[in-house]
Specification:
Blueprint: H1 3-22, H2 27-45, E1 74-79, H3 85-91, E2 103-105, E3 111-113, H4 135-138, E4 139-144, H5 154-171, E5 178-180, H6 181-184, H7 198-203, H8 224-231, H9 238-250, H10 259-269
Helix pairs in contact: 8-10
The structure holds zinc ion.
Zinc ion binds next to loops.
Length: about 270
C-alpha cells in the first residue's frame, strides 16, 4: 500500500475514533425522544377522528380558529431517592422504567430539562389532590437529586427557586399549587424528605404556609380530617394524610395529632 493511502486510512480511523468518543452517551435516547415527540405532535395536527359511531356527528368537520396549548397549572416537587444525578438521568432514559420528570436538579444546582413543559411526564403515579387524580396531566415534575435522607444543598434550592420563578410567571401557577409528591401520594411516597425547606419556598412565593397560631382556639367539634381534605390531602388513609401534613408543614415525621397540629391546620385550612 502506498504511504499516502496508509496515512489517509490512519487519519480516517483517528477521526472516527474521536467522533465516537465525543458522541453523547445519550445520543440514541435523544433520538428516541425526538421521534416520540414528533409522533405526539403529529397527533396534535391531525383532524379529530370521529370514532364513536353511536354519536350523531355532523357530516362536515369545522375546526375552530381560536385555540392554544393547554398549560401546566401545578408543580410537584420530588427527591430522586437515588445516589447521583447521573443515576437519575439514566433511570429516566431507560424505556423499561417508564418514569420521568420535566426537570432534574443536581446537588450542585445544575438543572437538566428532560422534557418540554407541555408534554406529560411520568412522575406523579397514582395520586390525588382535592378531586384531581391525573396529576401528571396538569403538572410539571421537578426531581431534586437527594437520596431521601440528605439535607438539600443551598445551591440546589437556589436553582429550584430560580426555576420556579420562571414557571410560575410563564404559566400563572397559583401559589398554593406548589406541593410535594408525598402530599399527593401519602401512602406511597415521602418526598421531598422532611428536611425540605417549604417555609423558605413559601417566603419566595411558592406554596402556602401557616401564620402565628397564638390565640388560635380549636373548637371541640373541629373535624381535622375534613380540614386536611379541604387543604387537598387524600384522607382515605387518615394516618398517612396526617403524617404527610406534618412532614410538609412541621418538618416532623410522626402521625401523632394533638392541639398544636390542629392549631396549625386550622390556621392553614382557612386560607383555602
Ligand atoms: Zn417522587
Amino acid at each position: 500500500m502506498k504511504p499516502l493511502i496508509k496515512r489517509f486510512i490512519l487519519f480516517c480511523s483517528v477521526v472516527l475514533f474521536l467522533y465516537a468518543c465525543n458522541r453523547s452517551a445519550y445520543h440514541a435516547t435523544n433520538k428516541s425522544h425526538k421521534q416520540q415527540a414528533y409522533q405526539l405532535a403529529r397527533e396534535l395536527v391531525s383532524v379529530p377522528v370521529q370514532q364513536h359511531a353511536s354519536l350523531s356527528y355532523a357530516k362536515e368537520w369545522v375546526g375552530t380558529t381560536n385555540f392554544s396549548l393547554r398549560k401546566p397549572n401545578m408543580v410537584i416537587i420530588h427527591h430522586t431517592a437515588q445516589n447521583s444525578c447521573d443515576q437519575t438521568l439514566r433511570t429516566f432514559t431507560l424505556t423499561r422504567t417508564q418514569v420521568s420528570s420535566h426537570y432534574v436538579i443536581c446537588a450542585d444546582g445544575t438543572i437538566h430539562q428532560m422534557l418540554n413543559d407541555y408534554f406529560r411526564a411520568h412522575h406523579a403515579g397514582v395520586s390525588k389532590w382535592g378531586n384531581m387524580t391525573d396529576l401528571n396531566s396538569g403538572s410539571i415534575g421537578i426531581e431534586l437529586d437527594n437520596n431521601g435522607y440528605q439535607p438539600f444543598s443551598e445551591r440546589q434550592i437556589e436553582s429550584l427557586v430560580a426555576l420556579l420563578e420562571q414557571l410560575k410567571k410563564k404559566y400563572q401557577i397559583p401559589t398554593a399549587n406548589f406541593i410535594g409528591h408525598g402530599d399527593i401520594a401519602p401512602t406511597r411516597k415521602n418526598d421531598p424528605n422532611w428536611r425540605f425547606p417549604w417555609k423558605q419556598l413559601h417566603e419566595k412565593g411558592f406554596g402556602l404556609w401557616w401564620k402565628d397560631t397564638t390565640g388560635v382556639k380549636v373548637p371541640e367539634n373541629f373535624n381535622h380530617l375534613q380540614a386536611l381534605r379541604i387543604v387537598g390531602y387524600d384522607i382515605a388513609d387518615s394516618s398517612a394524610a396526617k403524617r404527610a401534613f406534618k412532614r410538609h408543614f412541621m418538618q416532623d415525621t410522626t402521625a401523632q395529632f394533638g392541639t398544636s397540629e390542629k392549631k396549625i391546620l386550622m390556621q392553614l385550612y382557612t386560607q383555602f
